[in-house]
Amino acid sequence: MCAAATFKNQSLYVHIPFCQGICAYCDFTRVRYHAGLADQYLTQLAGELEQRVPRQAMETVYIGGGTPTALSLGQLRRLLDMLKPYTEGALEVTIEANPEAIKPELIDILLTGGVNRISLGLQSCDDQILKQIGRRHTFDQARQAIRLLQQAGLTNISCDLIYSLPGQTREQWTATLQGVLSLNIPHCSLYSLTIEEHSEFGRTGQQPLDEDTEASMYFEAVQVLKQAGYQHYEISNFAFAGYASRHNLHYWRYDDFYGVGLGASGKLGAFRYDNTRNFQDYFQGRWIAEKIELTREDQMFEMVMMNLRTAAGLSLIEFERIFQTPVTSVYPEAIQNGLCQGWLHLDKEHLAATDSGMALLNTVLEEFLD
């Protein structure tokens, strides 16, 4: 057994695997929505919550998928009622939603259920690209959805954007970035396309753009968003001051978190677990598919890896509190080399990646594995 390390646990992730349609790039745990299957799923989810998660208020709750808003209004109300013990008093309750689902009656249910943050699957502001990747909304619909949310007081809105899509031009990407700025939303997440084997793109042999084009798109986004006042607080995430994702910051700070639902993951102390992706197993109460014991070395590296994704970097005090040894003693050569290369910055409180280090983060982290 590895030495015990004490991490904070104030977060709950809830996975809803249903979608109204399957996007071409997606390989997450998801199926097309079926009302009867969704009812069964919510019943089993309630049982998993009752047995595995203490009934206590969390700091953050994140409802992801799939697409949680693929549920019927009654099912969504049932889900949020089920989560009340965890969401009451929470600082941040996020739900993922698609623009075409945002209607006044849906917003009322979200507000009543304690949701105070929306992660909107925008993906692009180009209607041609949206159709190509299997999205069911247009940019005008997204704009109208955001207007409805803002008018209802749900102003803490994030949008996801994908770049390096097959055939995507630099001009289309530039226009998407300008389109996002016109929405006046406080958070944006960027994702480069990864071709997953079991996605439609994977099955049809599609490929992302070349590495140089992909990198130039990323750096253009960094420049445009920072000039517009967004803080680049994590390698793929940008926010106005005060709007960073509290839930995701728990991941990046390497805190513990509960994960429930089909295909969800969690971390509790020296263990990480992955839930089954099989409905039959899940409905029979065989929730966890794999439980991995983390060695002390695993935990130290993962804490460095996750924290270096953020602009704030790794807290030296927190690392030493948890592991009873300074990070500079555990990784002296990797840190020294990173400092010499200009990839890392070290002060009395934090070890952080520089801008150049952030761009080469995989290379930087390889030094910590040697």
Mean pLDDT: 91
The major pleated sheet works out as: 9 strands, mixed
**Gross CATH architecture of the largest domain:** Alpha-Beta Horseshoe
Low-confidence spans: 22-26
For the terminal residues, how far apart are their CA atoms?
Answer: 23 Å
Rg on CA atoms, Å: 21 Å
Binned strand content = 15-25%
Looking at CATH, the homologous superfamily of the largest domain is: tm_1862 like domain
What's the count of strands? 17
The tally of structural domains comes to: 2
* Total helical segments: 17
The share of residues in helices is 40-55%
Net shape: globular
Spatial order of strands in the largest sheet: 9-10-8-7-6-5-4-1-11
- CATH fold-level label of the largest domain: pyruvate-formate lyase- activating enzyme
| Name of the CATH first level of the largest domain | Alpha Beta
What's the SSE blueprint?
Elements: E1 9-16, E2 18-19, E3 31-32, H1 35-52, E4 60-65, H2 73-82, H3 84-87, E5 92-97, H4 104-112, E6 117-123, H5 127-132, H6 139-151, E7 157-163, H7 170-183, E8 187-192, H8 200-203, H9 211-227, E9 231-234, E10 237-239, H10 246-252, E11 256-260, E12 265-268, E13 271-275, H11 279-283, E14 288-293, H12 296-307, E15 314-315, H13 316-323, H14 327-330, H15 332-341, E16 344-346, E17 350-353, H16 355-359, H17 361-369
Parallel strand pairs: 1-4, 1-11, 2-3, 4-5, 5-6, 6-7, 7-8
Antiparallel strand pairs: 8-10, 9-10, 12-13, 13-14, 15-17, 16-17
Helix pairs in contact: 1-2, 2-4, 7-9, 15-17
Function: Probably acts as a heme chaperone, transferring heme to an unknown acceptor. Binds one molecule of heme per monomer, possibly covalently. Binds 1 [4Fe-4S] cluster. The cluster is coordinated with 3 cysteines and an exchangeable S-adenosyl-L-methionine.
Domain Radical SAM core: 4-231
Pfam family, one: HemN_C
